[in-house]
Each structure stands twice: as C-alpha cells, then as structure tokens.
Write a structure and sequence with these properties.
about 475 residues; alpha/beta; FAD/NAD(P)-binding domain; 2 domains; 5-stranded parallel beta sheet; 14 helices
C-alpha cells in the first residue's frame, strides 16, 4: 500500500480517490481541508526542465497549494531548436540558455541538479545521482529524449549527435579542429575526406544544420582558411524517407530540397546510413561516401526510468498517458512533452509530434490541472492546437506551414515568421536580445566571430589522434 493510500484511508477524505491500473477517473483534494502552510503543502517533483517541465513549473510559481522541486542534470534551461546554431558557431551558448536558479528567484521553486537513478512508486520516493532522496505526492516526468542509434554501436561510437548543449559544444570544437587539420593536410584525398560532412536525417535538425554548414562553406571557409579550396568541401544529407522535412507539407518538402541544392548540399533520399568506420560512410543502397564526419540526426527515443513498469511504455519508449497526462498504471505520476504518448487525442491517434509546441502546451495544461486539483475542480483533458511547423534553410529562406498546414509561407516572409516564433519562444529577454544581435551580425556580414576552441583543463584536453577515434 502506498503512502498516498495510507494517508487517504487515515484522513477519510472521500475526495482523495485512489485508482488502480490506468487512472481514468479524475482525483483531487478537497480544498476545504487543504492547508496552505509550507509543511502541509503537497509535494510536486518535476523531472526535466525542458519545454514541458519549465512550462509546467511556471503555472505553479508561488503556489499556495504545492511545494515544487525541479530536478535536472543541467543547471540551465536551453532552447533545443537552436542547438545547431551553437554547433556551427553562429550563436553562443548563453544566447539560448539560462540558469534555473535565476529563473526561479522569488518564485518559491526549489531546484536540484541531479539525475534520477530510481523511482519507487509505492513509497513515492526518488533516488538521485547525488545520493539524495525526494518524496513526492505528485510526480511529473518531463525528461525528454536522447539520440536513437537503433542499436548500431559502431555508429554510436563514431558519429556526432546533437541532442544537448554538451553535444553542440563538442561538435563546434570538432568542426573547427577538423578544418585546422585540413589546412595542414598534404594528401589531397585525406583533405577532401576531412572537408566532407554527412548528416543522417532529413528532418528539421538535419535540414537546418545542412543549410548553416553550406553558408559557412560559401562565405566563411575561404576567409578563415585561404589555403583550402571550398570546392573540396561537401555536405550530404541522407534520409530513409522519400522527401525532406517529413512532418511538413509537400510544398515544404520540395522547397527545402530546392533551396539546399542551390546551396550545394548533396541529397540522397530513400536511403539509410548502415555503417561508419570513421573515414567512410556506408549506405543502405551499397554506395559509400568518403568522409571523416558523420552527424546523426535520424531519430530519438524517450529517456527511461528504473522503477516505472514497462507496461506503461509505448512506441519509442514513450510513456502512455490518458488525456490528463496520467501515466498508464499510476494515479499520481504524470508525463508531458516528448516523453509522453497521449492516445486520447482523436486528431493524433499515434501521439503528438515530439516538437516544442506540443511539449509547451502539455506542460501548461498539466500545471493548470494541478491547480484545479487543489481547488477541488476536475481536470481538463489536453487538446493540442497545431500552430504550425517551420524550418530555416541558410540565412535567407525558411519554410512555414501554419494552422495545420492550411497556410504555407516560404522565402523572406517565411524567414520573418521563423525569426518571430523563435525569438518569442526564448526563455527571457536576455536570450532574446543576445540572439537577435548575433543573427543581425551574421545576416549583415555573412560571418560570425564565435569559431573558437575552448578546452576544459581536466576533461577536454586536445589529443593527437585519428579523428575517427573516440568521437563521443
């Protein structure tokens, strides 16, 4: 019997409902018995401070009903859709990141920098990587996803991923280091191999990354490395789908293809990457590409938690939830964002896309629902409002499908739409101003000044080694 059940039976409160299996009934606390003293507030623990977790927490700032603790392995929130611009030196990390502790000043939110090692749903406790333990009344899992290499250990060892800030910074350093090595390489074939980049995955990340790398090739390479011939550099996108930007409209598929080709990007569709030995990329159609750099942007899988029953897992290891975000099999454990698989939205029978907007909206709805619980009101089901999908190609063109793909915008107007949506989505004015400034400089000068390699004295010391070794 869980602590929640014991408290419910001891209190005799009929409004503290306990459901077994999938909790389809709405449960809530009686507001007439809800104390507002700090010691008696219900304890809410949130795992993950991304789009879903942070937007959930914002609904409970200075809450009279809850003690809220956010747990994250990083001490900052960051804007995932712009990681590729950090990786390509067009934005600095602080432009898209902001520390949790500064965000939560005066908001009565506790922050804990740690990872969850185990969840005990019966005892309603969390074990943390720092050796600590947290007790919860409500648990919100919003830890997102990590790169899915589909079991290919060779690619996992050799390729670069782009899922977190550490990936972006590592890739930024490596891209500059590779160019430095190409500058002094005397063998033309090895130089060509060093200057070739393959991107596995033609979704928004792959397309936007390819566009930015193509801009660097066109405007920056010859300036920084006058001894290198830009014609030797090649950028490839490989994707299993028959078109780029699969979640978007046919006009966006074709528009992205045409714009990338104009920028000199080589595109191969209906094809997968099957292996990579650090110098050669092997494709599923039997062909190969000689390249030292493979960037893997071909899929993600949800982060798992020890202690959560695998019966609760759906496709991509996402946690199956009802329309209120309650995880299958648990009454007071919720999931939101990329980690959640909601089956009860009729417009999205296979779950919502793993994008920023669904995560933001799920986090907000769940936060508001916990306030409703505290006030003795029934929760409202989540319904996703699709504001559209966007992708930018290079500096001057973007594709935007708005209002459930009913309106397609491209070219400069699409660029303005992309800029507006991304700027307003940044977490605070500090990020907005820095990002706008960096974009303005890059747009006007076709250049940026962030291509510097910084090493940590103890953990990232440069080593003389084959670039095919120990990519991660």
């Amino acid at each position: 019997m869980s602590r929640f059940q014991r408290e419910s039976e001891r209190s005799g409160d009929p409004d503290l409902q306990v459901n077994q299996g999938f909790p389809n009934e709405v449960f809530y606390a009686n507001p007439n018995t809800m104390e507002t003293t700090q010691s008696d507030k219900k304890r809410v623990v949130v795992i993950g401070g991304g789009f879903a977790g942070l937007n959930f927490v914002k609904q409970l700032y200075n809450s009279p009903y809850y003690q809220v603790t956010l747990v994250d392995k990083n001490n900052y929130n960051y804007f995932t859709p712009l990681l590729y611009q950090v990786a390509t030196s067009f934005l600095e990390p602080s432009s898209i990141a902001y520390p949790f502790r500064k965000l939560f000043r005066g908001k009565n939110i506790t922050f804990r920098m740690a990872e969850v090692t185990r969840i005990d749903p019966e005892a309603q406790t969390l074990s943390l990587s720092d050796g600590g333990e947290l007790i919860y009344d409500y648990l919100v899992l919003a830890a997102g996803t990590h790169t899915n290499f589909f079991g290919n250990e060779q690619i996992q060892r050799q390729a670069y991923s782009l899922k977190g800030m550490e990936d972006a910074l590592h890739l930024r350093n490596e891209l500059v280091k590779i160019m430095e090595k190409a500058q002094i390489e005397s063998d033309p074939e090895e130089r060509r191999r060093l200057m070739s980049i393959v991107i596995a995955g033609g979704g928004p990340t792959g397309v936007e990354l390819a566009g930015m790398l193509a801009e660097m090739k066109a405007y920056i390479l010859s300036r920084d490395y006058p001894d290198l011939d830009p014609a030797m550099a090649s950028i490839h996108i490989i994707d299993m789908a028959p078109y780029l930007l699969a979640p978007m409209s046919k006009k966006s598929h074709q528009g992205a293809f045409d714009e990338l080709q104009k920028l000199g990007v080589k595109i191969k569709l209906n094809t997968g990457v099957s292996a990579f030995d650090g110098g050669t990329v092997f494709l599923s159609d039997g062909t190969t590409i000689e390249a030292r750099t493979l960037i893997w942007a071909a899929g993600v899988t949800a982060n798992l938690f020890e202690g959560i029953d695998r019966v609760s897992l759906g496709k991509g290891n996402r946690l199956e939830t009802n329309a209120f975000g309650q995880v299958k099999g648990y009454k007071n454990i919720f999931a939101a964002g990329d980690i959640a698989l909601v089956h009860e939205d009729k417009q999205y029978p296979n779950g919502h896309p793993q994008l920023a907007q669904p995560a933001i909206q799920q986090g907000r709805r769940l936060g508001k629902n916990l306030v409703r619980i505290a006030k003795g009101k029934p929760m409202k089901p989540f319904s996703y409002f699709d504001r559209g999908d966007m992708a930018i190609i290079g500096r001057k063109v973007a594709m935007a499908d708005l209002f459930k793909h009913k309106l397609h915008i491209s070219g400069f107007l699409g660029l303005l739409s992309w800029l507006f949506i991304h700027v307003i989505s940044l977490v605070n004015y500090n990020n907005k101003i820095k990002t706008l400034y960096n974009w303005l400089v890059a747009y006007l000068t076709n250049d940026q000044v962030l291509r510097m390699i910084f090493y940590s004295k103890n953990s990232d010391v440069p080593q003389e080694q084959d670039p095919a070794i120990d990519k991660r």
